[in-house]
Amino acid sequence: MLKKKKTEVYALGQHISMSADKARRVIDQIRGRSYEEALLILELMPYRACYPIFKLIYSAAANANYNMGSNEVNLLISKAEVHEGTTIKKLKPRARGRSYAIKRSTCHLTIVMKDISLEDKDVEINSLKKNLDGKNSSGGIWDKK
User: Fold this and answer.
1) Which of 7, 34, 43, 99 has its CA at a distance of 20 to 30 angstroms from the CA of residue 65?
2) How many domains, the chain?
3) Distances (CA, A) of 31 to 25, 120, 125, 131, 142
């Protein structure tokens, strides 16, 4: 039996202290792009959300290199998600003994990268497998699945 090789790796960033909407503005620009193109875009964008996303993409590429042995040239950002995290609540003292609530929002980032060179090999393996299945069956009544 042929063993299917894993083609996707991911990196998670949890409790990153920024608004989910601000992170989505940056994530939407890099979704579906190649690894090198995404890094170039993130370096040139003027937003504060770029740096944690840059680190996360770099980490996902390192995971791909370590786990699958893939090259950075073949990596593609297949999925990039932003979810709202917990809200940190603090109280700031104000005049006359009152307090003012400060809400600090956090978000969770998920970057999934796909190796396109390994995906091409899986397509070839699946096509060979279909050809072999067609030749080995005798066409009898018991061969139906």
Assistant:
1) 43
2) 1
3) 11, 21, 28, 36, 48
